[in-house]
Amino acid sequence: MFRTFLATAILGLLPLSAAELKVAVLHPLLGDLARRVGGDRVEVIDLIGPNGDPHHFEPKPTDLKQAEGARIYFVAGMGLEGYLPKLKAVIANKATLVEVGATLPALAGKDEDEAEQAGHDHGHDIDPHWWHSIDRFRRATGIVTEALAAASPENATAFRSNAETYRNELDDLERWTRREISKIPRDKRHLATAHAAFNYFCKDFGFTAHPVQGLNREQMPDPKELAALVADLKKNHVAAIFPEKESNPKVLKTLTTDTGIRLGEPLIADGTGNLSYKQMVQRNVTAIVKALGTER
Ligand SMILES: [Zn+2]
User: How close is the Cα of 5 to the center of ligand 1, in Å?
Assistant: First the structure.
């Protein structure tokens, strides 16, 4: 994106000073959000990129050089970015760090009952995957908007107007999601996924979550946990297990072979890839309805 911008600028089609405010994002979905609110008045540097893993990413000095001049760094927060103390030290008082998730309602790191049944211990106090709640993403729009407005008051009106438009689109997206999910019978609303990224989605849209792994993609179940999980999936007649676009652990293949439960299309769990927020939600919901819904 930045390269395209630069190339366009060099061709003289766009003055280099077109963007009045430079910001950096450490989650691609926040990049999408900042672009939607900022329009052409904000230059957004996406430090993690489409293939990054937000659980384990850490910006390198070359990344930070690219973000030089950024006045705001947006991060997802809720404990997702373990490197925040280091980043804070690097940007010092040159920029503002905004943890977008900090004031959003958080879910606990594990569902107590489920975790106990499955014998899981995810080791997180808070589940950081708040972006799978459209309602929280709508609230995040306000947080990003006010941060941009504070950094560039002369553009505040434009930012707030863009935010209004975007929030309306999110309203539509949420309505569409509810309509789609209504095609899934209530007793089929069980979402079995690779890592535990979809608790917010499940909570908002009435699903029970059955994650195979823990919260950060690397905790694999031991044989006892796996046996408990298989029993749980069978008991609830779970119709599909969804791999992830970002990772597809071998254990899913074993699970589908052992249980006869089919493998769904991959979901986008951590918001990476080249899709916008809306496209991510649409793709995930479509895959879920395709596998669990009655209209096949
Ligand atoms: Zn995740």
Answer: 30
- Name the CATH topology of 2-110+122-173: Rossmann fold (3.40.50)
Question: Across-strand partners of 42?
Answer: 21
Alpha carbon of 137 to ligand 1 centroid (Å): 16
Phi-psi region of 25 (alpha: psi -120 to 50; beta: other; left: phi over 0): beta
Cα of 209 to ligand 1 centre, how many Å? Answer: 14
Distance 174 CA to ligand 1 centre (A): 21
Distance (angstroms) between ligand 1 centre and the Cα of 197 equals 5
Kindly report, residue by residue over 202-212, the tens digit of the pLDDT: 999 999 999 99
CATH for 185-292? Answer: 3.40.50.1980
Task: Delimit the domains of the chain by residue range.
Answer: 2-110+122-173, 185-292
Q: What is the Å distance from ligand 1's center to 16 Cα?
A: 36
Ligand 1 center–CA 94 separation, angstroms? 30
CA of 158 to the centre of ligand 1 (A): 33
- The type of residue at 193 is T
Cα of 216 from ligand 1 centre, angstroms: 5
Summarised one tens digit per residue, pLDDT across range 17-27 is: 568 999 999 99
Which residues of the chain carry a pLDDT beneath 50? 1, 9, 12, 14-16, 111-122, 296
Tokens read off for 151: 């950094």
Residue 42 DSSP class: E
* CB contact at 8 A, 207 and 201: yes
Angle at 37 between CA 273 and CA 6, to 5 degrees: 65
User: What pTM value is reported for the model?
Assistant: 0.88
